């Protein structure tokens, strides 16, 4: 039996609540397949830990996490801790140290999910964003000069290396080729005359090696407009750290809301653990009330199952979410329901069990 050791960082606010429901899904998949099982080790890191200890994680946190097969993260952020500290000292720290340079964000409108786009067909919103996750605009390079003076100057530098840019674009081409889908590159070369011109040139270089992949290249502002006006034109999408961050939240808005938005931070070479997370915030105002939406956390658990090679169970989790939405009976308040977080998780695993037993 294959045993996967998972580091769980429930984090802040609703993080522990939604993570619990994702773990139900992972355990249900393992229960129905005797070839693998999961072992979970919990870490108390996050903003509450910061308020007590002055740091987001233990000093040797990266060394501790390196021993695991994957990381499952709930949510980070809480009043009293500046967002740039909570983000950079935990989430970005893990991404960089473990070279999780691929951020995978599915933007798919499931049947039964709401969309603000009028009369949109579900099949017309089905994108996979492949976002550069280790450098670019979020490299954290820059300087703050003459702080507090009248001539104060702030420098925020973007970092685009040939290695970093080429590997994410190549990953996107490989994905598009494997799935038989088109690939769209999103940049802003007309205004960013170094970084984005460089991005576009690398895209063209790699493109020559994949003549079978249909491609297009868009400016980020045009892409934002077209995601709303003509979303079906986007299948696989590759873009930089900042643009990917912004556009995937737009994607969440048109594909059911942030409560359905999941993300995976992948180290494709598997030298280091990858990390899976719902991408919503910690929602401290509803923490502890058992009314938070766990579907994004469950979707990210599905991504973990897919990463480990258990595609049948990964798909069963997504199909169970879709069935739950179509039933419309057990939903949390943010989706106009009255059910609890745990009731939603229980219903998902019940649907999964039925599907796997009878249909898969």
TrEMBL record:
It comes from Alteribacillus bidgolensis. Gene3D superfamilies: Isopropylmalate Dehydrogenase (3.40.718.10). GO terms for molecular function: D-malate dehydrogenase (decarboxylating) (NAD+) activity; magnesium ion binding; NAD binding. PROSITE patterns: IDH_IMDH. Residues 5-348 form the Isopropylmalate dehydrogenase-like domain. It comes from the Bacteria. Its cofactor is Mg(2+); Mn(2+). The keyword Oxidoreductase applies. This is D-malate dehydrogenase (decarboxylating). Belongs to the isocitrate and isopropylmalate dehydrogenases family. Pfam families: Iso_dh. It catalyses: (R)-malate + NAD(+) = pyruvate + CO2 + NADH. Its EC number is 1.1.1.83. The keyword NAD applies. Keywords: Manganese, Metal-binding, NAD, Oxidoreductase.
